[in-house]
Amino acid sequence: MKKKISIIVPCYNEEEALPIFYKEIKKIEEKMNYLHFEYIFVNDGSKDKTLDILRKLSKKDDKVRYISFSRNFGKEAAMLAGLEYSSGDYVTIMDADLQDPPYLLIEMYDAIEKEGYDCVGTRRVTRKGEPPIRSFFARMFYKIINKMSKTEMVDGARDFRLMTRQMVDSILELKEYNRYSKGLFSFVGYKTKWLEYENVERVAGTTKWSFWKLLIYAFEGIIAFSTVPLVVAAVIGILFFIVSFIMIIVIIAKTLMFGDPVGGWPSLVCIIFFVSGVQLFCLGIIGAYLSKTYLETKKRPIYIVKETEKDKKK
Ligand code: UDP
Ligand code: MG
């Protein structure tokens, strides 16, 4: 019997890219006729005609399933929903904009089937077509997070990867609310092969990521996979304690030796400003972890489904 592959596609305002994506992936389906294909498109609260396109696709092609969210929940939520709905022996996640080249699937499948890997990930080795400042910050981020976290994050790794059912089930065991997939994939372990390719620009539509959104995402990654910032806060505190202790001794000694001329108001103000700044910074770090814990304890759903292909076919 043919094995099944599930292709998960998170879509947010992808009306322009979707038809092109569908055409391209169908070509790969024909080439990989030794597998049964299942498509799971996740409409992440798109404001354009994405949902209409998905409804039509699922009507004419019963390999196409879709899940439509009640609002935009973000790509992480869309990926999770896709993984939960998938039923394939192999599962892959692909962007709708063809930045994840579908032809790689053939090679990825062979690596799992013939070389005994559990997962094949993809890495962009170039960041061509991306603003240089963004690439610079991205590189810095990977350097920092890899120093801070035991979970390895691969620079340039995409969410595009092919996994075995066993690995997908392990990922689904991780029930956390604050999901940072790059870390989760790495956390579960398994034997992963990396395929490298040159960056491709999206076929249509525009990127959903602004610099600001990426920066916040980066901080979330660090907080989700490292507690080093909390240690940094403690270390700063100890350092300041030692420095102030030395200063007290110096001041006492100076007063005893030279008397007590009142002065040093400007330096005092500077010290107060500096120290209170550091205190607020450390409080901010603690607050960041606290807020994440707060959200975890609420156990809110990660996504809410409004409609799936089953609703329409009745
Ligand atoms: N996406 C999503 N929800 C969002 C943002 C993005 O499902 O809130 C999808 C988007 O439709 C695309 C994929 O995630 O299929 C990657 O988004 P994009 O191409 O904008 O990111 P980039 O490739 O620029 O990192
Ligand atoms: Mg893209």
Keywords:
314 residues; alpha/beta; 8-stranded mixed β-sheet; 8 strands; binds uridine-5'-diphosphate; binds magnesium ion
How would you describe this structure to a colleague?
Helix content is 53%, strand content 17%. It has 314 residues and is an alpha/beta fold. The protein has an eight-stranded mixed β-sheet with strand order 7-5-6-4-1-2-3-8, with helices on both faces. Helix 2 (50-60) links the parallel strand 2 (35-43) and strand 3 (64-69). Helix 5 packs parallel to helix 8 (211-225) and helix 9 (228-258) packs antiparallel against helix 10. The longest helix has 34 residues, at 265-298. The chain is elongated, with a radius of gyration of 25 Å. It binds uridine-5'-diphosphate and magnesium ion.
The main sheet comes to: 8 strands, mixed
State the total count of DSSP E strands: 8
**What is the spatial order of strands in the main beta sheet?**
7-5-6-4-1-2-3-8
Helix content: 40-55%
Q: Bin the strand percentage.
A: 15-25%
Let me know the average pLDDT: 86
Give the topology string: H per helix, E per strand: EHEHEHEHEHEHHEHHHEH
Distinct compounds present: uridine-5'-diphosphate, magnesium ion
> Structural class, please?
alpha/beta
**How would you describe the shape?**
elongated
Which radius of gyration do the C-alpha atoms yield? 25 Å
Report low-confidence residues grouped into runs of 5 or more.
Answer: none
Number of helices: 11
Q: Give the terminus-to-terminus CA distance.
A: 29 Å
